[in-house]
Amino acid sequence: MAARQDAGDAATAGRRNGNLTRFAPPLGAAAPDVKDVSTNSCILQAQRLRKSVPTAEGELVILDGVDFDAAAGESVAVMGASGSGKTTLLGILAGLDLPTDGSVWLDGDEISALSEEARARVRGRCVGFVFQTFQLIESLSALENVMLPSELRGDRGAKEDARAFLERVGLGQRLTHYPRQLSGGEQQRVAIARAFASRPKVLFADEPTGNLDTGTGKRVVELLFDLNRDSNATLVLVTHDATLAERCDRTIALDGGRRVA
Amino acid sequence: MSPTFALRLAARDGRSGELRLLLASIVVAVASVTAVALFADRLQQALLAESTTFLGADRIIGSSRPVPDAFRDAATARGLTQTDTVAFPSMLFTSDAADARNQLVSVKAVGEGYPLRGVVRVAEEPFALGRVVDTVPEQGEAWLDSRLFPALGLSLGDTVAIGRLQLRISAVLVSEPDRGGSVFDLGPRVLMRVEDVPASGIVQPGSRVSYRLLLAGDTAALDGLHAELEPALAPSYRWRGVKDSNRSIGDALERAESFLLLGGLLAVLLAGVAIALSAHRYARRHYDHVGVLKTLGATPADVFWGFLGALGAVGAVGVAAGLALGAIVHFGIVAILGAYLPVALPAPGWRPLALGTSTGFICLLAFALPPLAALRNISPMRVLRRDFQASAASQAATYGSAAAGALGLLFWYSDGIWLTLWALVGSLGVSAAFAIMGLGLLRGGRVAGMQAGSAWRLALSALQRRHRESVAQITIFGLAIMLLLVLLLVRTALLDEWRAQLPADAPNHFVMNVAEDEVAAVQALLAEHTNYNGRLFPMIRGRVTAVNDIAADEWERQHAVPSMDGGHLRSERNLTWSDALPPNNTLTAGDWWPVDTQEALISLEDEYALEHGLDVGDELSFDIGGLAVQARVANLREVEWDSLQPNFFIIFSAAALPDFGATHMTSFHLEPGAKRFLNQLLSEHPTITVIEIDAIVRQVRSIVERVTQAIELVLALVLGAGALVLIASIQASHEARMREHALVRTLGGTMRLIAGALTSEFAALGAFAGVVAAVGAEVTTYILQTQVFRLGYAPQPWLWLVGPAVGAALITLVGGIGARRLVRSPPALVLRELR
Q1: CA distance B506 to B191
Q2: CA of A61, closest CA in chain B: separation in Å?
Q3: A63-101 pLDDT, tens digit each
Q4: Residue B385: its chain A contacts at CB < 8 A?
Q5: Which of B2, B300, B381 sits opposite A117 (nearest CB)?
């Protein structure tokens, strides 16, 4: 308990100093619910996350005091029933949304204290996504979709990189096809290629097989884990699927916005 | 986000068709504005140029004193062309000693180069149509009006005398451009050389002479000269431009300008709405796009500048294409209408192109930027949860910016704060009223729909379910249809008014000085040779001396309305008497007198009465040829002065003027080919005077015709912009509608049901919009016609049928074409495409 308070104080101190970027969290082995990973290798950490939204019936609490951490290269599954807060947690961990209370550290930055502008830069630097609904841009071809992360960073050689990734996911012949010309499985493979094209340190996957049949889902999962292993990225995977969760190093479970395992 | 990436983004969106509608809206906006502006600019220049023929010059300096050489030198220094005219009344004598005759004529002595604008027509025999010449009479020669030949028994080659000067008649003068002015003060024209004037000895100090310096050239130089001479002009010299030269032409031009301006404005506003709609649609379709970009690391600033760059690129392409299209459309119009435009159109200025370019970018910034700029606020969480959308504040900014842009454009185009304020109040009021009416119609439609068949029920409940969008669409469609109806109505009213003023058989000749004993013979001759069936009006000259026993001057000082300019109460007027109210006159106060009245009564023209503070019941005293006459005002009349019929300010009852000898007058229409009849008329009645105004009538009519063509053209362009708004608006709600119908199909709805429901939905939407448009059109037309164009107004019952019918037909057609493919596609495909 003492360690938690230390951590909170340190984070507050960091905020006071105005030195928010690249401020290493002084957390580590002392945290009681953290797996045995070294302080330095902990790339994603969240403390006492709370998220509530006002509704006509009063305040609706979606997350209530959730702690989370993941080491570099680790894969963590987040499970829970619909409405348990999985997707909200994923959004906050990835810096897409802000918690009402609590803090999130990602790759050395306290992203919960950053502006949207600064969080976007952190995402561009170290985060990749795979979504249940693929989220490909309809007006761009498969190749252009995969080129996007590199183009946004202004990298040279975006096209060659993207082509290489698409060939790795087996879509080397479909470069110029638009999302609507691809099957669900193919679209998800393009999405996986795009996610890895951003060379993420942390890959967030939200129900990646939710929209796919069992066979296709399996193939997509294989691909996801293969690429993850090769790139040594941390994988945070939100899923209903216990079999899929078992493939991860660790599983945490949510129920009613609280962490139950 | 780098600029090149932004451009690539725009190029990819463009290639996939995402930007097609936005681009098309910009192209059409810029093209319509450019085409209207180019054509209007050239036509206006041409109309002005042609109207200058009424002056015979671009500008005139007129005076009863000779024009100083300093004025001429100043004009020369500015590179202006100039020539002089000197006009004066004089007696013309024939030189036939055996049969010496004379006639009061109006002499115009002209210099070399006359006229600077317009043409002189001459003929070899009287009352012929004549040919255009580019010369003036030689010194020692004169050209005479047709009517002088039979009246004085002259023929070409004869010699006549003006003062001490002998002149040989070398041609019959058919027309000269600057003949205007009051036709009644004009004697028959004699055209001679200004160099001969001194030899005549006519022009002496105190003579009634009108000197004119005619000027032509570059507008800037003319305006410069005006500014330079301004201090030296007053009080003896008058500077005149085309608009001062002829009130009816000035009015026609002003109305045409107002109308072209209104048309151009409508095209811009309609295109602006189309741009706003397509930009909104584009933005809405990019919510997910932006969400994904943000998850990939795009910052809000990246998103803002990226889309601004894309918009700039689209704008540049759209404006360039719009300018080119506008120029092509305008050249097409010129080519089509060229044959009907006898005047050569001057080269267009740069202003229309600048107008098109600026309008394109202002439209983009005002209408398209806000929704695209709001994209930066899209939460990246949208990729996980679709209920994250643009904030409400950005929508307020959107409407604010669109309103500011529209007003800015209005102000810029109209260059008038009042028209802008009217438009602001009008559009806010109309939008609010339309929204309320739309809501009412939707509710009513829903209740009615419960009783209807399944397609209608589906359609009306869908409209009610999306009531916010439906009300917005009814408002937008209603506004578009209303604007088109207003334009159509105003155009019709303008044209009807002009045509009514100048019907094809409008009188084009006046006959005056008909003696009492000649009336029956002249009337019979006119009836035999023309379609004349009117009567001759007696005419005497007289003036008002007192009102209610107060001297006229004193009365005027007490009662006259100072702002009006209708001459003095004491001025000598043409008077007539009559048993019956003349045609083209309408009583506005009092009653017409019984035929057999023995009372001394008068009838006054209503504006004359208003100007001089006179009303029914006032007693007026007159001095008629030295005799005092008293009469009571029995009634007031409104007179159609443009009818070219004999019209009088003051009409007496016959009993008031029993023993006054009078001459008689009337006006009649004569076809150009029948002018030889004038020879017969003047030979049989040599003392009467015939005044030809057919040339003036022809000129006015030709201007009206041309203005009509311009108006029809502008209407066509505005219709095009309106159609674009309809397409953009239907496209904007396309996805929501299609998703619903695809779902209905998956639940077992047949293709026929969906097609029926869609048709019914579009028809209902169009009909509702038509109803609100009809209401708006009636009100707006009333305001425009009475306040802006100063025309009469009559309610238009047909609007209430045509508005809804046209609305339903148009929107069903446009919406149906857009929805056709999706109705036929399998629902799974539709759902997948719309995902």
Answers
A1: 28
A2: 17
A3: 999 999 999 989 999 999 888 999 899 999 999 889 999
A4: 87, 91
A5: B300
What is the number of domains present in chain A? 1
Give the CA distances from residue B180 to residues B58, B138, B242, in Å, rounded to whole numbers and listed in that order. Answer: 15, 24, 12
- Tell me the sheet residues that pair with B104: B91
Instruction: List the alpha helices (DSSP H) in B502-650.
Output: 519-529, 552-559, 606-611
- Chain B CA closest to residue A93: B381
What's the gap in Å between the CA of B308 and the closest CA on chain A? 16
Task: Tell whether B309 is within 8 A of chain A (Cβ).
Answer: no
Quick check: A121 and B299 CB within 8 A? Answer: yes
Mean pLDDT for all residues in chain B: 79
Mutate to test the interface with B, among A53, A119, A141, A152 (most CBs of B within 10 A): A152
Of B5, B300, B381, the CB nearest to A97: B381
- Domain residue spans in chain B? 1-39+249-326+350-415, 56-240, 434-503+693-835, 533-668
pLDDT digits (tens, 9 = 90+) for B116-129: 888 888 999 888 87
CB neighbours (10 Å) of residue B222?
20
Q: Are B142 and B97 in contact (CB under 8 A)?
A: no
Q: Which of residues 600-639 of B touch A (CB under 8 A)?
A: none
User: Mutation test of the interface with chain A: which of B292, B379, B386, choosing the one with the most A Cβ atoms within 10 A?
Assistant: B292
* pLDDT at A49 (0 to 100): 94
With a pLDDT cut of 70, the percent of chain B lying above it is 78
> Taking the C-alpha atoms of B803, B806, B811 and B813 in order, what is their torsion angle to the nearest 10 degrees?
170
Residue A48 has pLDDT above 90, yes or no: yes
User: pTM higher than 0.80 for the full model?
Assistant: no
Report the pLDDT averaged over residues B736-750.
Answer: 72
- ipTM value for the complex: 0.77
Say if the Cβ atoms of B292 and A154 lie within 8 Å.
Answer: no
Q: Are strands B601-605 and B627-639 parallel, antiparallel or unpaired?
A: parallel
How far, CA to CA in Å, does B729 sit from each of B291, B404, B473, B814? 25, 21, 7, 10
Q: Which two tokens stand for residue B81?
A: 């062309």
DSSP conformation class of B368: I
Residue A153 and residue B297: Cβ atoms within 8 Å?
Answer: yes
pLDDT in tens, B589-617: 999 999 888 889 999 998 888 888 889 99
What is the SS3 assignment for B565? Answer: coil
In A, minimum Cα distance to B388 occurs at: A97
What pLDDT is stored for residue B640 in this prediction?
Answer: 76
Q: Which CATH number goes with the domain that contains A74?
A: 3.40.50.300
Report the pLDDT value the prediction gives residue B207, as an integer from 0 to 100: 65
Find, in chain A, the residue whose alpha carbon is nearest to that of B301: A117
Is the pLDDT assigned to residue A246 strictly greater than 70?
A: yes
Asked if the Cβ–Cβ distance from A116 to B2 is below 8 Å, we say: no
Residues of B in contact with A146 (CB under 8 A): none
pLDDT digits (tens, 9 = 90+) for B289-325: 888 888 888 888 888 888 888 888 889 999 999 999 8
Mean pLDDT of chain A, nearest integer:
81
CB B87 within 8 A of CB B107: yes
pLDDT at position B585 is: 87
> Distance of alpha carbon B103 from its chain centroid, rounded?
42
Handedness of CA B378, B381, B383, B387 (dihedral sign): negative
Which residue of chain B is at minimal alpha-carbon distance from A138? Answer: B289
Strand partners, B755: none
Task: Pick from A132, A140, A144, A182 the residue to mutate for testing the B interface (most B CBs within 10 Å).
Answer: A140
Q: Which domain holds residue A7?
A: 2-259
Strand bridging mode B59-63 / B237-240? antiparallel
Averaged pLDDT, B397-408: 78
Q: Which residue of B has its CA nearest to A197?
A: B296
pLDDT above 50: residue B374: yes
